[in-house]
Amino acid sequence: MILQYAVLVCLICCTWGYHNDRPIIGVLAQETDSESKHYGDTFIPAAYFKYVEMGGARAVPIFVKKGQAYYDHIFSSINGVLFPGGGVNILTSEYAKAAQILYRSAIKANQNGDYFPLWGTCLGFQLLTALATGKDLMTEFDAENLMLPLNFSDGYKDSRLYGNLPDDVFHYLSKENVTTNYHHYGITPTDFQFSVDLTKYFRILSTNVDRNGKEFVSTIEGINYPIYGTQWHPEKPNFIWNIQDNINHGPDAIRVAQYAANFLVGEARKNGHRFDTIQEEIDALIENYSPVYHRDSTFADRYYFNYTSL
Ligand SMILES: *[C@@H]1O[C@H](CO)[C@@H](O)[C@H](O)[C@H]1NC(C)=O
Ligand SMILES: *[C@@H]1O[C@H](CO)[C@@H](O)[C@H](O)[C@H]1NC(C)=O
Ligand SMILES: *[C@@H]1O[C@H](CO)[C@@H](O)[C@H](O)[C@H]1NC(C)=O
Questions:
Q1: Which residue ranges have their beta carbon within 6 Å of ligand 3?
Q2: 120 - beta bridge partners?
Q3: Which one of 9, 65, 78, 253 has the lowest number of neighbouring Cβ atoms within 10 Å?
């Protein structure tokens, strides 16, 4: 009887995956540009932390320019990684180098049945294509400050990310200007389909066209692994209030943003990694740092870090 019960429990666990109601997601830092260098060597926009918290996770910063041991340790302590948007090089930056280590760890973990989600937003999405191919396949687009509905691609219904969309979320995503685009680079569906390394690992879930009618890939999903990329920014509607921007803050855009946050955190709950001790977990959380609120017209809210003080 006990044995039968144990077998049943194992079957449930193995089939449904780990269930972790205290997930922690790591958000990767990137180098600051010369304009904000004096605040710190690297930064992470606060919106990404708030976004994962909105989905029911806690968040930790992941630093760049660290050794393999640091990344191995943080990887084994957290339940997912978010590669945020920004403006650094997707092949040569410290952001890209750290991401490559995390990406390899995630692929290896998932191959071994250790479910570990990765999500890339905007630059992070572009980064995922570079990590999979070792190439920069980006071309130029005119899609800064552009709100769009998604053009769902064939097969999106079989995807994890969009296959079970609630009716209202599907309606908003397919008909309303609820996805926030802020990019002057992107990948065309043609360039994507020509890359064997991309089609081997990812399927396209949606496309869009920029102001000039040039088509770009707007959502991808890992075929075999829980890896997701959006060229659009699900974290912006709730948290970015720059008055020069055209961000849709209406209830439908917020609903879509919350769906995406819930989805990512839902994936992280399937992972059982944790910090060695509660103290170590507490020390890693973003709550240990203070953001800088830029009271200029950008109203950006950012965390800065220096290489030397970490
Ligand atoms: C980084 O170092 C610079 C120069 O010393 C300093 O002005 C800045 O406040 C530091 N930033 C952080 C986040 O510690
Ligand atoms: C949606 O994508 C398909 C496939 O690329 C394309 O044929 C169609 O014109 C697109 N629709 C819109 C509204 O962009
Ligand atoms: C969405 O935005 C585009 C581009 O700004 C605009 O042309 C279009 O009318 C908007 N659509 C809706 C449904 O608001």
A1: 147, 176-177
A2: 83, 229
A3: 9
